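Q: Structure tokens for this one, please.
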Amino acid sequence: MFSSLKTLKFTFINFNSSRRFCHEITDGIQVYSYRHKHKVPLVLKNPLYSSWYTCGPTVYDSAHIGHASTYVRLDIIQRILRNHFNINLVTCMNITNIDDKIIKRSHETGKNWKLLAEEYEAEFWEDLNKLNVQHPDIKLRVTDKIPEILEFIEEIENKEFTKIGTDGSVYFKTTCYRNYGKLHNVVLDDPSTAEFALWKAAKENEPYWESKYGKGRPGWHIECSTLASLIFGSQLDFHAGGIDLKFPHHENEEAQSCVYHNCGDWVQNWIHTGHLHLKGQSEKMSKSLKNTICIQDLLKEYSSDQFRMACLLSHYRSSIEFGPELMDTADKILKRLNSFKSDVKAFMNGLKVDGYIDEELLGSQFFECKKNVDLALKDDFHTAVCIGHVSELMKMTSKMINSTDNHLSSNSPAFDKVLLQSVLNYIDKLFSTFGISESNSSKETCDKVHIENVIDSIIKVRNDIRIRAKESKNKEMFIICDEIRSKMKENQIEIKDHGNLSSWTKIK
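A: Here is the predicted structure, written as tokens:
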């Protein structure tokens, strides 16, 4: 994109100087500020786009559902900003493909570190696809930007914020940065203990790159500062990750980036998602604690929509207690959504003749729901509150559709059907905004529904009809049995009758 950080920095300065105002386009959106410890108005500096950087994975192993909850929740917020608030969001994510953990796993498995990282990165993107998480607009890998990282370090060194360790590693001197701890309120008895590596001297049998400091590789924190700066320059609107990254990773990023860019605040809005932990456990899900469930195993038991709905049912900054109760609740809401859509379509097609739409009541409830959903999303993206309001609207609407009061007219005016369709359109669009996919929301998992069990049930019902037909000598019932056998054969299932019993086989 740019030949160097200096070139990019110059470009951004020229662009910023041509802008004479701070353009607020957020219309009352409030986000939580870790600096102020309360919600503040969301203000975007650029009228053309909003910048978003997400800390990506360290690709040394399969991702687990703790990671999944972070990326799904961040995906939900990005979709809300784009599709509900119409903000032109440009997103970027890094891939950490060189790190202590990657090197350790390489030594343990005997697999080349680069091939190992490539394998798990490919798996990570496939996991995101299965979770219906939109890929970032821009993807950057650490090893592709080593020269830019070294240039970033040298600029910090020029400003006298570094020191060289005995092994040749380069460290950031937190004692020189007076605002250190503004995100985490960290108080250090010995500030020197918070010094962190910008460049790590190579050890024996480790991959390395040449530099003026000697052979080595980047520290963890410097990579995100460099890569985000390469794309977005001296200011980011959003920087996101799990709450476990707030300290030390994001604290260190902010410190070194403010020094590099000579600015008071590098990131305007830090977005941190709460931990996911298994029901009955207080610790976050972590590979080191061996309490993880990989994403592939999750999707064997639940659909991606069920997991996404589970994420929607709490505020993104809250922790998630993962277990059967939460997933059952998520599943019930999705089934309620599908049942509602089915009822509305049946009513619109004249299949529910007893229903009656109270235009005034439905219109009032619809208006209140839209207003409250908008307020909840403006209140730091509170999706759980939205689900509650929409559930109430669906409940009341379904009650009208399924009404059996004889004194109410079954011939609803055309306007009532327009109002009903507009309710359905709104709910469809809202859940689509949240990333709930219609094709997946009604999907049951293979473990829960076996096609053989469904066929067995159909055969049993048909067999019961045959027995009653024989007892009553009812020809019409026999005709129904023949029609079932014919339809099943069209779907490659052959039914054979054996007296009072029946069997079936798949037609090859």
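A few notes: The longest strand covers residues 89-95. Residues 451-506 form one domain.
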